[in-house]
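Lab notebook, design round three. We kept the backbone fixed and only want residue identities now. Task for the bench partner: fill in a sequence for the structure below.
Input structure tokens:
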């Protein structure tokens, strides 16, 4: 299995270009199932999760052509309505196929995703929403079977703001009869990107990005022609990389309004952040201050940046309390950071991080996508050599991270097994 080997201690300097957002590209690719014709989606990152969607779309009968970041999807003939276990288990976001299939084809059969490393992650809120729109839902042999001749509009209140649930129901509601109102909806920038793309296809969605989204159903949609937004989590990861190495990096493609909570916390930690044309420039502090963070749905501090920020806090001057409020089991990186000399203790949903003078390089193992990124960040700041194993997690969500870090001056390489 491939691993990443880092010789820490280099200050990162220069400019890095952020790729298209994984979490925006995934629903957008599924949205192609809503309309016949040839869809074009640009700025799609090259990632393992994107390969999985392409495979799933092909399994359903769509044609997928890719040239660099440009995807052309032909969704005229859908031959199958089933998302099989083998694909869903490698990528939970496969459940986003439910809404588009149900809306355009009146039925879908999708494997239940099951648990994952960071928690139980059920899809009950997606299913409750489809039922409110008139779908009959049956659970059969590990699969969700959903049927509806034509979905109808409904008022749907989410018990908690779910990103995937909001996206799935928003896509389904575009072709439903009547108006759907999603209350306590998630407000993430990727939801706004999806709504903009759907509206360009002829949908009528208003107030996406607020907690109440209204969708007036239409009879049909045009093919998609759109470019995916930049990845705010990749941008955030490079911003922390600049901070932890006391470097000076321009992160091109970082959008300040999508990253407000992270920017505020990085500034509190001592980093200097300025907006420059097309991105953000981050200068790491001489002395990293310890700050507390609590993860929350957008616009709160993103759970997808918690592990990376914790790597920074291991070197803070003081004590930082990091509370994880979105997922139940998202501290898997802690044991690995401890192996590198970090002083962290966990109690319930909170981790107390006492800053240490320095981290020491060590062989460590990635446990999930963002945990992998946090170990790489720690390795950049540690002395000697850090080897990060199981990097297939990393390849799910970061496009050529080692190449990009190398261009900034990091001593890092991928060792192929
Ligand atoms: C998305 C992101 C993921 C991010 C997460 C939270 C994608 C592909 N993934 O995941 O990177 O970490 O948002 O920002 O965009 N929940 C339920 N029932 C449901 C649905 C969710 O209880 O039906 C719970 C989950 O267990 C979790 C919380 O709601 O505790 C938030 O999950 P959700 O926002 O749905 O995350 P995802 O869409 O899976």
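Proposed sequence:
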């Amino acid at each position: 299995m491939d691993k990443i080997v880092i010789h820490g201690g280099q200050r990162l300097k220069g400019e890095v270009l952020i790729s298209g957002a994984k979490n925006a590209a995934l629903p957008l690719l599924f949205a192609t199932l809503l309309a016949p014709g040839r869809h074009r989606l640009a700025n799609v990152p090259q990632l393992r999760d994107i390969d999985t969607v392409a495979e799933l779309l092909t399994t359903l009968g769509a044609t997928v052509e890719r040239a660099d970041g440009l995807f052309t999807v032909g969704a005229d003939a859908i031959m199958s309505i089933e998302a099989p276990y083998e694909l869903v288990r490698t990528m939970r976001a496969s459940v986003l196929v439910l809404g588009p299939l149900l809306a355009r084809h009146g039925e879908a059969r999708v494997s239940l995703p099951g648990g994952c490393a960071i928690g139980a992650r059920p899809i009950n809120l997606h299913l409750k929403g489809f039922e409110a729109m008139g779908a009959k839902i049956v659970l059969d042999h590990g699969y969700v079977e959903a049927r509806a001749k034509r979905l109808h509009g409904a008022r749907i209140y989410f018990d908690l703001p779910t990103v995937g649930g909001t996206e799935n129901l928003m896509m389904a509601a575009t072709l439903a009869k009547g108006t759907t109102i999603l209350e306590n909806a998630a407000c993430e920038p990727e939801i706004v990107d999806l709504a903009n793309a759907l509206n360009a296809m002829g949908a009528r969605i208003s107030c996406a990005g607020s907690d109440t989204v209204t969708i007036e159903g239409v009879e049909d949609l045009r093919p998609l022609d759109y470019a995916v937004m930049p990845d705010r989590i990749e941008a955030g990861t490079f911003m922390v990389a600049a901070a932890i190495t006391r470097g000076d990096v321009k992160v091109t493609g970082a959008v300040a309004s999508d990253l407000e909570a992270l920017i505020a916390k990085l500034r509190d930690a001592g980093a200097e952040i300025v907006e420059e044309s097309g991105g953000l420039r981050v200068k790491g502090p001489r002395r990293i201050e310890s700050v507390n963070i609590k993860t929350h749905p957008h616009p709160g501090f993103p759970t997808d940046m918690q592990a990376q920020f914790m790597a920074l806090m291991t070197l803070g001057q003081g004590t930082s309390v990091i509370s994880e409020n979105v997922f139940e089991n998202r501290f898997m990186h802690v044991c690995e950071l401890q192996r590198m000399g970090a002083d962290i203790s966990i109690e319930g949903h909170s981790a107390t991080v006492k800053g240490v003078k320095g981290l020491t390089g060590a062989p460590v193992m990635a446990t999930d996508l963002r945990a992998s990124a946090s170990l790489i960040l720690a390795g950049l700041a540690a002395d000697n050599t850090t080897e990060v194993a199981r990097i297939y997690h990393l390849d799910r969500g970061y496009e050529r991270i080692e190449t990009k870090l190398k261009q900034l001056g990091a001593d890092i390489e991928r060792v192929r097994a």
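Keep this in mind before ordering anything: The domain at 2-19+230-416 is CATH 3.65.10.10 (UDP-n-acetylglucosamine1-carboxyvinyl-transferase; Chain).
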